Automatic annotation (TrEMBL):
It is found in: Membrane. The keyword Transmembrane applies. Keywords: Membrane, Transmembrane, Transmembrane helix. The keyword Ribonucleoprotein does not apply. This is ZIP family metal transporter. Pfam families: Zip (PF02535). It is a multi-pass membrane protein. It comes from the Bacteria. The chain crosses the membrane at residues 6-24, 36-53, 59-79, 165-186, 192-213, 225-243.
Length: 244
């Protein structure tokens, strides 16, 4: 439990850490945002394909893996369709973002962070000793640009710094609570852990392909974004091998 509290807390705190520079930097180019998003996408792909998916296969079989990945993908598709949300990247470019758009941004980022929190909690409940550290690091890195973009929207819309920090803390708390749910779920019902790992892998791949990659390639920065994606992937591969 102590390891869970430390790693899950550090992972969720990535959102807060990422938000701090945005309070000082009021403008960020599309190129920089695209590079950050693509790097995060590479980290998440490697965490899923080198951490979550192999662990799910080791504990079960291909049928369980397929079911869990499809379940994660279908659930996020339904959430995306029926829960209103907005595009955080393009809204962050405009200083005059409406209050409604800012609220939709918070809902969107919270929606994305819930499966990430579940991924962290489930991986920390897994018997594999290094899986929790790998996934926690991956989610923490991925949370850095998310926190930056959330804070950037609110920082450019108003002069006060307290509200951006409070909103970022709210998103962080939601992710941590989701990780607690995932950890308790995996600890009490260990036979469902491979399903949970596969579910988390599918959810992460969905977010990467549906959100992060398209956003990082939408403004003519495909080449630097592609290199950032590869570097992010290599970062997680190196971490995985370093923990073996």
């Amino acid at each position: 439990m102590e390891q869970y509290l430390v790693l899950s807390g550090l992972s969720a705190a990535g959102t807060i850490a990422g938000s701090l520079p945005a309070l000082l930097i009021r403008n960020l180019s599309h190129r920089s945002k695209d590079i950050l998003l693509a790097y995060s996408a590479g980290v998440m792909v490697a965490a899923s394909t080198y951490g979550l998916i192999p662990s799910a296969l080791k504990l079960s079989n291909l049928y369980v893996l397929t079911f869990g990945i499809l379940l994660g993908t279908i659930l996020l598709t339904l959430l995306e369709r029926y829960i209103p949300h907005t595009d955080p990247v393009h809204d962050a470019d405009t200083a005059a973002v409406s209050t409604a758009s800012r609220m939709l941004l918070i809902m969107s980022m919270t929606l994305h962070n819930l499966p990430e929190g579940l991924s962290t909690g489930i991986s920390l409940a897994d018997p594999e000793p290094h899986l929790g550290a790998i996934v926690s690091f991956a989610i923490g890195v991925q949370n850095l640009p998310e926190g930056f973009l959330i804070a950037l929207v609110f920082a450019t819309a108003q002069s006060r710094m307290l509200k951006p920090i409070l909103y970022v803390c709210g998103v962080t708390a939601a992710e941590w609570l989701a990780s607690l749910l995932g950890y308790n779920f995996g600890s009490e019902l260990r036979f469902l852990i491979p399903y949970g790992l596969a579910f988390a892998g599918g959810a992460m791949l969905y977010i990467v392909y549906k959100e992060l990659i398209p956003e990082s390639h939408g403004d003519g920065n495909e080449t630097p974004a592609t290199f950032a994606f590869i570097i992010g992937t290599l970062t997680m591969i190196a971490l995985t091998h370093g923990l073996d």
